[in-house]
Design a protein that fits this description.
mainly alpha, Rhopdopsin 7-helix transmembrane proteins, disordered N terminus
Length: about 300
């Protein structure tokens, strides 16, 4: 007997990282700690930048928005995971799943574009220092931020609407700790050709173009730094973009690593465990990277606490 199609899906089953009962308290404690560190660290970055007038510059304006996006990014998945572990259930309703997918795509894309804009900011600061204040004026920075929001919102909305048109069968298990778009689409009984095309195009365009922009910006930055005669000047120029380059390497390295490993290893549980790196670990480490490698942020944090 064929599984019956349903237009209104009551719930999906999230299999999570492990189904072993004895590991659930450990997972709960680990992810609660990581979430609290992520939330607190990024919130402190936002407060430090907001309260210190010396940090009201384009670089820190985009950094505060990146911290906000990181808080929202982790908040789309971890609280639901913690609630499921605490309640000893692994279900998520259809409406919750669609909402989670929408905001996960939105804030993941926002992280992606903000890192690109920050690379452009460093490019202008190092390659065109005399024109920096003219080019990176408040109006232009606001337009760049608006463009990041609009592009990512359109992407998440389009993917969400395409999922809404699908009908699902009775097999609703997701081998992940959140509603990952690709896995949800492949649970559908109806034709997913259009969803797959849009997913691959969006992933290709919204992944390749920003990464290309970042690589181009840093290629120009390196060439400009090599032209500086003094060692002190080179060191100062490298230090201004060192934190951002570390975050970019972490974000793209973990993200690409997950998707390349998922293509090579057809084990969704392994992919779910690997995806913890870019969904939880990267947003958690970003505040440490920026605060430990940036004396302006450290001074602002000292003022905030004092």
């Amino acid at each position: 007997m064929e599984p019956e199609n349903q237009t209104d899906i009551p719930q999906f089953i999230l299999l999570g990282l492990s189904e072993e009962a004895e590991l659930q308290p450990l997972l709960f404690g680990l992810f609660l700690s990581m979430y609290l560190v992520t939330f607190t660290g990024n919130l402190l970055i936002i407060l430090a930048i907001t309260t210190d007038s010396h940090l009201h510059t384009p670089m820190y304006f985009f950094l505060s928005n990146l911290s906000f996006a990181d808080i929202c990014f982790t908040s789309t998945t971890i609280p639901k995971m913690l609630l499921n572990i605490h309640m000893q259930k692994n279900v998520i309703t259809y409406e919750e799943c669609i909402t989670q997918m929408h905001f996960f795509i939105l804030f993941a894309g926002l992280d992606n574009f903000l890192l690109t804009v920050m690379a452009y900011d460093r490019f202008v600061a190092i390659c065109h220092p005399l024109q920096y204040t003219v080019i990176m004026n408040p109006r232009f920075c606001g337009l760049l931020l608006l463009a990041c929001w609009v592009l990512t919102f359109m992407d998440s909305l389009l993917n969400g609407l395409l999922v809404l048109r699908l009908s699902f069968c009775t097999e609703l298990e997701i081998s992940h700790f959140f509603c990952e778009l690709n896995q949800v689409v492949h649970l559908a009984c109806s034709d997913t050709f259009l969803n797959d095309i849009v997913l691959y195009l969006a992933t290709g365009l919204l992944g390749t173009i920003p990464l290309t922009g970042i690589l181009f910006s840093y290629m120009k930055i390196v060439l400009s730094i090599l032209k500086i005669s003094s060692a002190g000047g080179k060191s100062k120029a490298f230090s201004t973009c060192g934190s951002h380059l570390s975050v970019v390497s972490l974000f793209y390295g973990t993200g690409l690593g997950v998707y390349l490993s998922s293509a090579a290893i057809e084990n969704s549980r392994v992919t779910a465990i690997a995806s913890v790196m870019y969904t939880v670990a990267t947003p958690m480490l970003n505040p440490f990277i920026y605060s430990l490698r940036n004396k302006d942020i450290k001074q602002a944090l000292r003022k905030l606490f004092s």
